[in-house]
């Protein structure tokens, strides 16, 4: 009975070891060991006993635990390592994929993961559903975020075989962006998470989309040769679209124009909007007493004031706009 249990356990482990990427030779050894005991096979003059098989089983189990722990540190649950290291010169950078949804690891241990691209919004995960944008969000995805099934999901995806490049979603409130992240098992990034993930993004108009004269200057996610990439592999964190973050602030005054810029050396004159003002409620109405929800990074036509340290506090969480998008994190 003990031998049979060891055989069954080894066979189960062999399957799991193959799934997590253990070298095929060791997987084969585990499977052959199970078969050898089952048939009374003798190798090198030594009969494979239940005790030796149990010892092998314990060793494999130990290695499996270590492998699974390492895998979980590289990517969030459900995602597989696609490239490691991902960014040249950064051995801790990892590109993770779940279907066509792509995230990059930020930091070491404990790490977190941020969407590689500004997100699209779809009615099914992994690129196969309908994409929604601007004014065509369905009734089950209302501006106040009180969503009902079928849910819409945030997805960070570039081009895929047989599919066009994804255009990041805009014209959604903070509440809608939050709901789309949550439906995908993610959330909006905090201030600290967003800023650290943006580290190393070049504050350069020749690399980031910040001087685009087009009325809709959004560029596609996953476009070839995009140089607007952070140390960790997050793309377009400067320019393209402002991005919602998980930050709300009091807004006691009223000042709709830019109020200043980061003048200290190293901040690139990144602008600040409406730090002490009322907030736009999304209906072209400025309301004193509404909180302001922070947006970061700048949009496609903001020029020099766009950057890692650019922050806008002009809009309440109910605000939406053509130059405003989002991305999500997992921690």
Structure in a nutshell:
The chain is an alpha+beta fold and 331 residues long. It has five helices and 18 strands.
Description:
The chain is α+β, with helices and mostly antiparallel strands. It has a domain of 73 residues. Helices cover 23% and strands 18% of the residues. The chain has 5 helices and 18 strands. The strands form 5 sheets. The protein has a 6-stranded mixed beta sheet with strand order 11-12-16-15-10-17. The protein has a 5-stranded antiparallel beta sheet with strand order 3-4-5-6-18. A 3-stranded antiparallel beta sheet has the order 8-7-9. Strand 13 and strand 14 form a beta hairpin. Helix 1 runs antiparallel to helix 2, helix 1 runs parallel beside helix 3 and helix 2 packs antiparallel against helix 3. The relative contact order is 0.12. The N terminus is likely disordered.
Strand content: 15-25%
Which stretches are low in confidence, meaning pLDDT under 50 for 5 or more residues running? 2-7, 14-44
Helix content: 10-25%
Q: Oligomerization state of this entry? A: single chain
Tell me the total number of β-strands.
18
Radius of gyration: 25 Å
- Helix run count: 5
Structural class: alpha+beta
What composes the largest sheet? 6 strands, mixed
Whole-Å distance between the termini?
Answer: 44 Å
* Main β-sheet, spatial strand arrangement: 11-12-16-15-10-17
Overall outline: globular
Mean of residue pLDDT values? 80
H-E order:
HHEEHEEEEEEEHHEEEEEEEEE
Write the layout of secondary structure elements.
Elements: H1 2-20, H2 24-39, E1 42-43, E2 46-47, H3 50-74, E3 80-83, E4 95-98, E5 101-106, E6 112-115, E7 120-122, E8 131-132, E9 153-155, H4 174-183, H5 191-197, E10 242-249, E11 258-261, E12 271-273, E13 279-280, E14 286-287, E15 292-296, E16 311-312, E17 324-325, E18 329-330
Parallel strand pairs: 10-17, 12-16
Antiparallel strand pairs: 1-2, 3-4, 4-5, 5-6, 6-18, 7-8, 7-9, 10-15, 11-12, 13-14, 15-16
Helix pairs in contact: 1-2, 1-3, 2-3
